[in-house]
Amino acid sequence: MSVSSEKRDWPLRAPLRYVKGVGPVIAAEFAKRGIETVGDAIYFLPRRYEDRRFLKKICDLQVGSREIFLAEIVHSAEHGMGRSRRRLFEAVVSDGTGFITLRWFHYALPLFRKEFQNRRRLLVCGEVKSFGPRFEILHPEIEWIKEGEETDSLHMRRIVPIYPEVGRLSAKTVRRVLKSVVDCYGLQVPENIPHEIIAQLHLPSIPKAIAEAHFPGHSLQETEVARRRLIFEELFLFELALALRYERNRHEEGIAFSIQEDLEKRLRAMLPFRLTAGQERVLKEIQADLASVRPMHRLLQGDVGSGKTIVGFMASLSVVNCSYQVALMAPTEVLAEQHYRNLYSYAERLGFRMGLLTSEVKGKQREKLLKELGSGEIAYLIGTHAVIQEGVRFHRLGLGIIDEQHRFGVLQRTALRQKGKMPDLLVMTATPIPRSLAMTVYGDLDLSALDEMPPGRKPVQTFILTDRDWDRLLRFLKAELARGGQAYCIYPLIEESEKVDLKNATQMAIRFSQDLAPDFQVGLLHGRMTAEEKESVLIRMKNKEIHLLVSTTVVEVGIDIPNATMMIVEHAERFGLSQLHQLRGRVGRGSQKSYCFLMTHPGAALGATPTSQRLKILTQTNNGFVIAEEDLKIRGAGEFLGVRQAGLPDFRLANLFRDARLLAEARRLAFDLIRRDPNLSHSSHQSLRRAVVDSSPSPLKLLFSG
Ligand code: ADP
Ligand code: MG
User: Fold this and answer.
1) Minimum-distance ligand to the CA of 305?
2) pTM listed for this prediction
3) Quick one: which of 200, 204, 285, 657 has the fewest CB in 10 Å?
4) Which range marks the domain in which residue 565 is found?
5) Number of the ligand 1 atom closest to the C-alpha atom of 589
6) Which pLDDT belongs to residue 500?
């Protein structure tokens, strides 16, 4: 990093404790919230604002509305209430025009005793209720007033910012620190966005936006615009990084493969089905990229079961045929092994070597594999994260394929590319991200979509059940197994309590074995098993030696057993909709009618809670895109995509769903700008260039370094 940029950014990088009025204790509390520098504090915005310009008199308070007023303590004490003698703390306050009672059921008695002194003045805020003839407020927000503070311009008689809580600091302290930060440093924040863009969008300058977003002047509308400005900046820098990357990719020189139809024809003859029109189209798109000298950066999106694997494999054949290597990376061992098992025999019959590399491959076996990979004897490597580990060297990697991209981040994508010299890259995902979002999230990739299912698929009929339905469910299960079908029963896995979940899954397997004995076999699959154990369970399932497979969510992605027709999901309410859709996608893969049972607690099943509303969507549609859209609405983009997993920056202010329109605007303007000035070399873009390339939000840097 150059000295000048360091100097220039210095104010934002200054530790918070350099700020006037911030001692080590306060700095430590902020640090716990991840706010360590002045820059962090500047982007720590109020969660809401409170209009304290017009305080009410107690006599004018209205029952049912949220009110703010000044008062003084008349009397306070702890009481026992009702027959249970539940303890509560009460304070009667007055402002000379009337009395009102404040009540707390949760409080720290010593502190309250110390603070609630008669005649002490305070600001009270909360919803007024009537309690018999009297007015009361339960758990009001209060702020103590010191002598002469009614005229204080920071906490009173203005629109006051309400910040998220910072450790044990009082609301006033937090406000004072931020005031100090904004006053001392707000003016020094560099203006990154070109003037014409600011003007075009009618946005305020950065210092003005910062001041207004923290300490509103006259109207909340202006504050809203100020916040938009800050959010826009965040999104714009992000899109600019994507645009720069996209632009750079466009000029890279990679390998131009010649597309050879011989192997492809032979593979087609081996397949038990014909590719759908959608698959053919996507194959053509990929092949066009392979044939071009520009390295491919393509995202293949297709709903669960749409048949992405075979498309990726067929496209690979041209690469193998040109004596280059292919690497296919999957997020789990189970999935990597399945791919290997499915594709191995094709590779063998087509005359090239395939290898499997997971963390389970160790010692001599691993050594041999790596040697054959380095010499080029192995043409096609399938594996997990192990593929991008340091010691793994390819002879000539020509194509990297990442399956289930949503489980990997940008870093892994980059690492895989670096295993070769400008190899082509195909990433596949079954998370049907709405197109608009995909464009922004994976904005540096070209998109292909498989929007059609292989023929003969029937929608999976879905039901919401509770434990009370157990007997019915069991009867249904027996009938389905007797007919020759197979079933899964899935347990959610919550990382912190893996042991408990495992116990649950194990117990469930035992319960099922008892209920289904002696006619049917029950298998158990979970993350703690070794690769061999998992493999053997899956093979037995595939061979129909196991009829019901009880499993933790390791089967979530990709497992393909077409004869399975029934999916039971325990504690369905703990899953996201898209994840449930993925799980459900494990059935309905063959020609038989399939069923999915979402088990939940009675409250949720009755349709009364948000959870049940959510689950109901699954009973109504099998369309992954519709489900994803709903999921996004409910959970927000971060959670939906699993921010860290998706390699997305953890936006400080923006919410990809709420700010979708602003995001689209940011994208358009950013790509526009890069088209005009591909390297940001124009003198008026220097500040912008620095902001993108070496500014503090590290996710941008990460994105840029690929
Ligand atoms: P996903 O897109 O979820 O990764 P897969 O690639 O696992 O889906 O394919 C799901 C199943 O559909 C596999 O059993 C595969 O063999 C089968 N399949 C793929 N393409 C077709 C097709 N055109 N016709 C029939 N079955 C197909
Ligand atoms: Mg797949």
Assistant:
1) 1
2) 0.66
3) 200
4) 461-621
5) 11
6) 57
